[in-house]
TrEMBL record:
The active site is at 8 (nucleophile), 10 (proton donor/acceptor). It comes from Propionigenium maris DSM 9537. The record marks 113, 144 as: Important for catalytic activity and assists the phosphoryl transfer reaction to Asp8 by balancing charge and orienting the reacting groups. GO terms for molecular function: beta-phosphoglucomutase activity; magnesium ion binding; phosphatase activity. GO terms for cellular component: cytosol. This is Beta-phosphoglucomutase. It comes from the Bacteria.
Amino acid sequence: DIKGVLFDLDGVIADTAKYHYLAWREVAKRYDIELCEGFNENLKGVSRRESLEKILGIKNIVLPEEEFKSVLKEKNELYINYLEELGEDSILPGIKEFLIDLKRSNKRVAVASASKNAPYILEKLELLKYIDYIADPGSIERGKPEPDIFLDAARGIGLKTDEVVGIEDSQAGVDALYRANMLSIGIGDLRNSLYNLESTGELLDKKTRRLIFKG
Ligand code: G6P
Ligand code: MG
């Protein structure tokens, strides 16, 4: 039986994936790189550092470490500025209700996001009370699609891999769950998931309810 749910944050709990994209677009432009939504899919679930490597890789640009670091800092400042706009309606459809249902049914909830801004965002959205554990990406060496962060998240809520299901909007994330031997629900058109939903609103539908709340 499923005893807990592991949530990705950006694009699953909060409508923040668009802010990452806008911030990266601005940064990329300085190097004459035009980011498009298709390429952006490769950045979802990927750490800040690795994202910049991928972006600069488009033009085979390699920056000295110092400049690289200052670009990372700048990207995060742009991103944090966008986060000023965060409010109740930044919580994606159905998520709050779903979290309330999980709490009521004594299911455990963990967040497994590559974002170092996750605790800040969850606090700002007043969702911390629904969450039992937040994995710290800073202390996990291998990012998604490696399974480590989901293994840590399951451990954090005291559950085994076959007692949890992960919810992800990125291919890297679904692949990480797959490698962790965990069930996954994809948001969007993803490979390797148990099934995909078009939107988080569908988490309240029968299919997901049967999987998580049965028994
Ligand atoms: C998530 C997002 C990525 C982002 C990463 C790091 O995985 O999907 O787009 O690059 O977190 O986020 P951070 O807030 O630490 O830069
Ligand atoms: Mg995501």
